[in-house]
Amino acid sequence: MSVLKRPLITEKSQGLNSQGKYTFEVSMGSNKIDIAREVEEMYGVTVASVATIRQYGTTKSRMSKSKVSTGRTSTFKKAIVTVKEGDLIDFYADL
User: Fold this and answer.
1) CB 48, CB 19: distance < 8 Å
2) Strand locations in the chain, DSSP E?
């Protein structure tokens, strides 16, 4: 099973790319060492540090004509990976 699920491409994460920080969604059971090892293998960069964040799911509701539908978003874990100065990860290289 892979530790990295997908890169998170948002406005905020794109702003961090200029500082050498990249954001990924990772599996819930992964730790910082596993994340760093997999990023180094996949992208061929040297990882300086890893910060992990658990993003808890929230309750959402929406109105329809006859009733109110409520649900919950899922909880996920994300990692902000800082690479060594001079290294670069290009997410759009294979497109």
Assistant:
1) no
2) 4-7, 21-26, 47-55, 59-63, 68-72, 76-83
- 21-68 pLDDT, tens digit each: 999 999 999 999 999 999 999 999 999 999 999 999 999 999 998 999
Q: Which of 41, 31, 39 is nearest to 83 (CA)?
A: 39
The C-alpha torsion from 61 through 57 and 49 to 43, rounded to 10°, is -70
**Are the C-beta atoms of residues 28 and 52 closer than 8 Å to each other?**
no
pLDDT-based confidence at residue 88 (cuts at 50, 70, 90): confident
Q: Hey, CA dihedral for 47, 82, 90, 26, is it positive or negative?
A: positive
